[in-house]
Amino acid sequence: MTADARSRPRSRELHRRASRRTPGGVHSNIRLAGPRIFFESGSGPWLRSVDGDEYVDYLLGQGPNFLGHAPEPVVRAVSEASRTGVIFGGQHELEIEAAELVCETLGWPDMVRFGVSGTEAVQAAFRLARAATGRTKIVRFEGHYHGWLDNVLTAPDGDGWGPASAGQLASHLDDFVVLPWNDADRLAALLAAEGDLIAAVIMEPVMINAGVIEPRPGYLERVRELCTAYGIVLIFDEVLSGFRLGLDGAAGRYGVTPDLATYAKALAAGWPVAALAGRADLMEHFGTGEVNHSGTFNGSVVATAAVKASLELLRDEPPYAAIDQHGTALMAGIRELGQTYGIPLRAAGLPAAFHVSFGDADVVDYRTLQELDLARYEELAEELVGHGVWVAPRGVWYVSAAHGPGELDAALTRFAKTLTEWL
Ligand SMILES: Cc1ncc(COP(=O)(O)O)c(C=O)c1O
Q1: Could you tell which of 119, 152, 204, 297 is best to mutate to test the pocket of ligand 1, judged by most ligand atoms within 8 Å of the CB?
Q2: Domains located in the chain, CATH noted
Q3: CA-CA to 16 of 20 to 30 Å: which in 313, 322, 361, 376?
């Protein structure tokens, strides 16, 4: 790091310039949280800022850089493929190869449609579920994130959940029922009362966005049974968990198969691609034209080349064992630092994605997550960034295939230095 990594003179200058033409100087509101740093480049698990500071990256661009920054085989495949055109307004063979690879890699889906963002893939899933069931209501869960559009963006509002943004139409939330997650009895009770009105149940099968909380043993199985019993479409939002928790994502890890699932992020190593995958009888509603799913950029050469190269790499050189080892050691190292410094540092979740915070609670859902001292971690995150560890205030750390012993050592050394100076 530079002598005074906090001054970031070039980033400050660029932020002032950016803010004149871009609201807040950022193109996604999530980046309003945390320090405004401009990066010059990324390589493997490292980032270099325009101020000359090096960061060991455990944010991975909010998850996509699962193969590290600029993974050579994907960069090569994308640049070679794009030399001969990127969008045709018609079909090309890479689309087929990428779709086959997605379905074969995951194992359970029959068909896939590509899109550009996770947000859109979720909306396409809702449309299919409503068309297939002829019902309108959708059940979702506290703390799960499904994108930034009016019908899914929520914030705690008294004892319930309401719009999270000015300008958001509260009426778009009317068709959604929000339940506590990881409580199958609550879902069973709701379905007993109004199961025949529910088109879909959507969830992150591991609640990565809020606390990286795993499903209780048997929970996903019970949800699956309930959805089948009531003719409800079960949607797993695997935008974060897909291809990250293993080649077959959370569905494979927990052995529970949804009817539809959304993927993005680790699917294409940083290139903007999302996918909706599912059973043929549901997906074919798009094929007949009965249900509209459109997008100029869907299935572009760039997108499908990135998917193909990324999934081939994950299949041929699976990084999962190394990621497990790295993440496990990193979580253990962070806990050990807590003991050394006499502070209640908590690191919990899965090796590929875990949550760091302060406190000691039995965290099983969004409400119990609030028993932790999340605000104190936000302060620590800013200090960590100041010491060259790129993490977000929300506390979710992601490990990539590119992280190795050098990064583990750098992260823990920098973490210790941060605590020495901060406490
Ligand atoms: C589980 C989940 N679903 C949907 C989304 C929305 O995806 P995108 O930001 O690509 O629109 C995200 C984004 O973080 C996510 O984590």
Answers
A1: 119
A2: 9-67+319-422 (3.90.1150.10), 72-316 (3.40.640.10)
A3: 376
